[in-house]
Write a structure and sequence with these properties.
The protein is mainly beta and 180 residues long. The chain has a single domain, classed as Immunoglobulin-like. 9% of the residues lie in helices and 39% in strands. Strands 1, 2, 3, 4, 5, 6, 7, 8, 9, 10 and 11 form an 11-stranded mixed sheet that branches. Strand 9 and strand 10 form a beta hairpin. The termini are far apart. The structure holds calcium ion (CA) (2 copies). The site of one calcium ion (CA) has 7 residues, from loops. The site of one calcium ion has 6 residues, from loops.
């Protein structure tokens, strides 16, 4: 009987020692309220604006970031507007996402943290100018962040600012100057 009791106690200790599931111990992992926005590196202008010759081969990388970081990948939905035509005046690189003439999606992977920071996760939306050989005038493209949610179902505000006040860094504008 004594041996049985010792074994029973040992079993109980084993069970409690291996119960390291944080949720069961009423410790909940939650994410801080966050937002997804364009990074405004080195400037104060909002919306971000870039001007590029339509013959330029330099990729315009527009950084989209989650300033608070994220516990899972964030899918960001964006739209295009303006008179620059997708495929004719520009193309885009959207890691993990899609692109059509109306816009698409791009994915901010978890743990894409720039050097010197601790919480940021980000992705670059690459804008490529297209040389068309046609006198078509300057063209304007506005990329607007529409919504964002991570793989855990958490939604993020788009743009920076309190609801009801000015929302910053929700859109970016690229001007393609005609060279023909
Ligand atoms: Ca053009
Ligand atoms: Ca042209």
């Amino acid at each position: 009987m004594k041996r049985f009791l010792i074994l029973w106690c040992a079993g109980l200790m084993f069970a409690s020692c291996t119960d390291l599931d944080l949720e069961d111990q009423t410790i909940k992992l939650i994410e801080l309220p966050g937002y997804v926005a364009f990074a405004n590196t080195g400037g104060t202008i909002t919306p971000i604006e870039r001007t590029v010759a339509e013959t330029s081969t330099a990729v315009q990388n527009l950084r989209i970031e989650v300033a608070t970081g994220t516990l899972s990948d964030v899918t960001v939905t964006y739209s295009f507007s303006g008179n620059a035509a997708f495929g004719t005046d520009f193309t885009v690189t959207t890691p993990g996402g899609t692109a059509t003439a109306a816009g698409g999606t791009i994915v901010i992977k978890r743990n894409q943290t720039p050097a010197g920071t601790t919480d940021f996760d980000f992705v670059n939306l690459g804008i490529h100018a297209v040389a068309d050989g046609v006198d078509d005038g300057d063209k304007s493209l506005t990329i607007t962040l529409e919504s964002a949610a991570n793989a855990d179902g958490k939604t993020f505000a788009v743009g920076r600012g309190a609801p009801g006040s000015t929302i910053y860094l929700k859109s970016a504008r690229v001007i393609f100057t005609d060279v023909d």
